[in-house]
Automatic annotation (TrEMBL):
Residues that span the membrane, as ranges: 278-297
Source organism of this protein record: Halobacterium jilantaiense
Superkingdom field: Archaea
Gene3D superfamilies linked to this entry: Immunoglobulins
Lineage, highest ranks first: Archaea, Methanobacteriati, Methanobacteriota, Stenosarchaea group, Halobacteria
Name assigned to this protein: PGF-CTERM protein
Amino acid sequence: MHPRARSVLVVAAVVLVLAAPVAGLAPAAAAAGDAAETLGPGDDGATSGDAPMGVDAQEDDDGERNATSDEPGPDVGSANVTVLQTPEVVGQPLVVEATTTNEGTEAGRKVVQFEVEHEIVDRAVFVLQPNETKTVTFRHVFETPGNKTFEVDSGVNRFVTVEERRPELSVSSVRVEPASVEAGGDVTVTALVRNTGYANGSLPVALELFGEVAGVKNVTLATGESAEVTFTRSVHTPGSYEATVANASAEFRVTGAESTASARTTDSVLESASETPGFGPVVALAAMLAAALLIVGRRA
């Protein structure tokens, strides 16, 4: 080839190469490189800041599990209070118990306070293991009467009325032995006296016959004690009678002819048999006759 022609071909090839980008004839590799530069390394078509697929679902799953699962730790609630004994009078104890359970997954500390009249009088401190239940008991004795308040574990304010200690003596029964007696014979009236109160006390026990007081005895009993009080009398007039002591009474019968024997008293109660109907007016007449004879004798 002629040297001049070869030079023309070389110039034409150079011009063709330089003109290719302007005509849109860029190689595919250049287009691919531009696309890679636009998306960026690792991009999959998602917008900037989006997490990869499947990450959001995993976070949702984790959040739901956290929301439904129990948080670890102790769960010690308020105590359940039971009143075991309520005092009626001064000196009797108030007894209460408090039960607490730890429903958590770890050990927990519990403090239970016992308040009386808005003041802490006792407390219990303990540790509960998971699912453990513990019961503590509190006691308090009131020294004065009145309306009292108490509270356990900062719960319900409760009330109790405490009375003063007093004796309570009463006659519970009366019996007469024998139930039937010959005129002039002895009958024994027995009264059972009890002290159902909360203090020692005394009671005058009076026997009534024929609507009048025929004798009185004083009885002293300690709390919870009982005693029998007896009166022995002889009745000379036949008939049916009723012996009464306090609110209790018993009947007896005197049979046969009216007795002229003197009335006899075998208990230590001071009484006047001659002034009591049925106890023989002959006795009083005999006493008057004896006194008259004594006066005549002294004059002689």
